[in-house]
Amino acid sequence: MTILFTIGYEKATPAAVMGELKHAKIDLLVDTRAVAASRRPGFSKRQLAAGLDEAGIAYLHLQKLGTPAEGRQAARAGDTDTLWRVYDEHMKKPEAKAALDELVGLVKTGQRIALLCYCRDPKTCHRSRIVARVKKRMRVTVEDLIPPLF
């Protein structure tokens, strides 16, 4: 059975996230943020990719799987209904569908892949929506990695 991992870096250090990824023997980290920048040191695209490379983990940013600005705003305001509506509409767009196709193709290779976003709780994160879409297309078990709090 293929396993698809998810991880959020909220309230975690880069070392804690890296530790979880190494422990799970992740081959590829797929960044699912619309904006791969972070005020948190170590989690912006270049720094993250460099740290992963040192650990022998590949990095891929699938930006079109990220939540549009309106959805991110709703998430920050705690408006989950609007977040999901905006995200589900976004995922109907050709570029989002193409990114999902790319992800499914990668998962089918059997690599150990983890989806990354900010949110610590996978249930309140768009990662859960991505996982649901992957599950509609193939048999996959999902394991949410939760790094220790800093």
Could you walk me through the main structural features you see in this protein, from its secondary elements to its overall organization?
This protein has one domain (3-145): 3-Layer(aba) Sandwich (Cobalt-precorrin-4 Transmethylase, domain 1), CATH 3.40.1010. 43% of the residues lie in helices and 16% in strands. The protein has helices at 14-23, 45-54, 69-76, 80-90, 94-108, 127-137, and strands at residues 3-8, 28-31, 58-61, 113-117, 141-145. It has a five-stranded parallel sheet, with helices on both faces. Helix 2 (45-54) links the parallel strand 2 and strand 3 (58-61). Helix 3 packs antiparallel against helix 4 (80-90). The longest helix has 15 residues, at 94-108. It starts with a strand and ends in a 5-residue tail after the last strand.
Number of helices: 6
**Which assembly state applies to the chains in this document?**
single chain
The 3D shape can be described as: globular
Which range does the strand content fall in?
15-25%
Draw up the topology in text.
Elements: E1 3-8, H1 14-23, E2 28-31, H2 45-54, E3 58-61, H3 69-76, H4 80-90, H5 94-108, E4 113-117, H6 127-137, E5 141-145
Parallel strand pairs: 1-4, 1-5, 2-3, 2-4
List keywords for this structure.
Cobalt-precorrin-4 Transmethylase, domain 1; 150 residues; 5-stranded parallel sheet; alpha/beta; single chain; 5 strands
